[in-house]
Amino acid sequence: MLSCTKRGALMHRMLMPILIALLAISGLSPPSFARGMETGDAAVAEQATPAVVNIAIWKFRAGATKNDPPRRVKTYGSGFVIDPSGIIVTNKHVIDGALDIKVIFSDGNQANGKLIAAAAMVDLAVVKVDVGRPLPVLEWGDSEELKVGQGVLAIGNPLGLGLSVSAGIISALNRDIQDTPFDNYIQTDAAINHGNSGGPLVSGNGKVVGVDTALYNPDEAGGFIGIGLAIPSETAKFVVKHLLDPKKPKPGWIGVKLQDLTPDLADALGMRGARGSIVAAIDPGSPASVAQLRPGDILAAIGSAKQSDARAFMRAIVQIPVGQQAKLTVWRDGKQQIVALEVAEWPNIMPQGGMMTHMAAMMIQKMADPGVKLVALTDALRKQYGLDAKQTGAVVVSVEKDCEARDLGIVAGDVVVAVQGQPVSSPDDVKRAAQKAHEQRRPYLAVLVQGKDGARWVSLSMGGEAGT
Length: 468
Description:
By secondary structure, the protein is an alpha+beta fold.
């Protein structure tokens, strides 16, 4: 029985000669749009990929039980350079709780990344690298000009495999995944998997129209099923501009919680056919409270601009300069009125600079488990692992599947012979050295490992310089 793929290929082989023959009879040339699209995609990918980066991050993961120590794990994400000096845009969730940020370029070169700032409410962050030379960049495009059905490319680091490009179309606009009050996601069927987060969604002119951020799958452990989501470039540009300028005022705020005015709600309030957003709550002491807005008020416009939904209204508010007056068109008890209020700074915004999640901040107080089991050397173990009879140190007898030690290439039979330059004669020596490094908040622990290929130094991350 033929699979869908094989059936499609067979049908294609059967139909193409007929199509070409018919076109020849009619005096037309065979269609070239498929080849033109492929050629265009390849040119855009070639132009864009040098400015796209893979990001590798060490983070803490909680132990399997409450009493188990946290485990250092490596996660992957993506980003793209927007300034030759090394300014990189990525997602906030990519670098949340990062102990170490490694930026890998398309040519294989690497650099340490430093977190400059992360947005509090929108999933965006800015990372800086210093490589001593200008870097290729990607320019922002205009997401307001996007059309459903338009071709795009998603570029990033899916599943940590390395830089990859996938093609698709814009499937929908203004998607609300109830992540923030401002959700305005682009939906695409260009493949976005875990690790693509922070990478660019690129249009046919090679410009960034979105920041790949999420994938939808009812199965939390599942992968891409054709629904990827990206933050529009117009939103990203606004947020990144604020993040890069510590003197720039905070986003505008009036202190209202809004929801979309549904036809049923409008009917219930005697406003059949009305469109806008309905006030659900007012923050005490906010500009909205001072202006005496109240739950049940219907907001139809800001100035002369009507807003399509509650999220559009909130996006418009945050972009009004702090201290500037906003005039709202409000419907109350069936009557229209204009309410003027002064836009304030959004309160409780995360400060500029590095940050960690609460869980990571708590776990960093404990010494992390590198994921290896060490035991004292015996003649039996020397024989089992083919070690020299005079070999000293602490021998590795097991390595966890998901841990830093495995990522560093440590395997059973390796022997730890020194830590921080001091000889090791037992597992306790290693524990004491690690504990001392942890208490001193050292970023790394230098470990000399004797393996089958000889001795080599490895650095175990200790979390002493979070976010750098």
